[in-house]
Amino acid sequence: MLIDAQFWTFVLAITLLSMTPGIDTLLVIRNTVRGGIWDGVLTSLAICCGLFVHASVSALGISLILLQSAWAFGMLKLLGAAYLVWLGIQSLLSARRGSPLPIAGIDSPSRRVSSWQSLREGFLSNVLNPKTVVFYMAFLPQFIAPSDPALLKSLWLAGVHFVIANVWQIGIVLMVGRAGHWLAKGWVSRSLEGVTGAVLIAFGIKLALQQRP
To answer: How far is CA 12 from the centre of its chain?
Structure first.
């Protein structure tokens, strides 16, 4: 059954998880300020599309292989860490250049960020995050009965997570968009880019140094 006695427990848990600030929230805010509301929405959608990848590999047992193989898990962790550091460096370079940002929520022909870039950044930041691999491997099976079709139920739960996370993250995008004129001021945007870059690099380093679960 897709909706059973434990479904609402899952909804509550996944809602609280979605509202917890983390890399996803940081990236959504950063890209909204950098490229406007549309790019923030694309980033959120791309991040949440990664959930279906994690649900699929969890149901098919690939996550278990990753968790049991020190080499495979270590490579995934380092790739994710390197990607976060790279995003952080890009933010720091942008803050140093002090390039003018478009006002959030206003599409401009001179916008310097492509939609594809926001989609790529959001998707890869989620798919390359080993913490999501571990979470889905440990969390989803609690809501899948032995009689359930594992892949279908996993994708259904990921779909619920997709909707809830997008509602929350797009709400953040719209709030940032309303403050677009203030955020587009040179010193504000440069400060935000600098802080975001430093935090992303710190996340990446912490992830790289973290021991296997």
So the answer is: 19
- Can you read off the two tokens belonging to residue 103? 């006002």
pLDDT at 160: 96
Q: How far apart are CA 164 and CA 97, in angstroms?
A: 36
Of the candidates 60, 34, 43, the residue with the CA atom closest to the CA atom of residue 137:
60
CA angle 32-203-81, nearest 5°?
100
53, 66, 200 from 70: Cα distances, Å: 21, 7, 25
Distances (CA, A) of 129 to 77, 93, 96: 7, 23, 27
Domain ranges of the chain: 23-209
CA-CA distance, 65 to 73, in Å (whole number)? 9
Amino acid sitting at position 36: G
Query: Alpha carbon 138 to chain centroid distance?
Result: 19
How far, CA to CA in Å, does 127 sit from each of 119, 124, 143?
12, 5, 22
What's this model's pTM, rounded to 2 decimal places? Answer: 0.74
| pLDDT tens profile 136-151 | 877 787 787 777 888 8
SS3 content of the chain, % helix, strand, coil (to 5): 80, 0, 20
Instruction: Please give the average per-residue pLDDT across 115-135, as a whole number.
Output: 87
